[in-house]
């Protein structure tokens, strides 16, 4: 799903980075924080340990070794 204004299209169940499949992490995180100030953003490089479990107040941004968003950021 793409937002008509080119911004993140945010729903309660997922966060979509609109208009790009491979976004740099910093602008993606800044956009998430702007659009959803009510959630905490966690940036996780490859191999980072993280606790499993769903949290409606968290967005995890998985990045690759080049600082590019590797997976679609999702609330949880």
From TrEMBL:
One of its GO terms (biological process) is response to wounding. Transmembrane segments: none annotated. It comes from the Eukaryota. The keyword Lyase does not apply. Keywords: Protease inhibitor, Serine protease inhibitor. One of its GO terms (molecular function) is serine-type endopeptidase inhibitor activity. Belongs to the protease inhibitor I13 (potato type I serine protease inhibitor) family. This is Subtilisin inhibitor 1.
């Amino acid at each position: 799903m793409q937002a008509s204004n080119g911004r993140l299209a945010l729903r309660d169940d997922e966060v979509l980075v609109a208009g790009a499949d491979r976004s740099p992490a910093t602008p993606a995180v800044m956009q998430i924080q702007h659009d959803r100030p009510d959630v905490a953003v966690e940036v996780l490089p490859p191999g980072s340990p993280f606790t499993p479990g769903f949290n409606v107040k968290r967005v995890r941004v998985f990045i690759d070794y080049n600082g590019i968003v590797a997976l679609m950021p999702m609330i949880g």
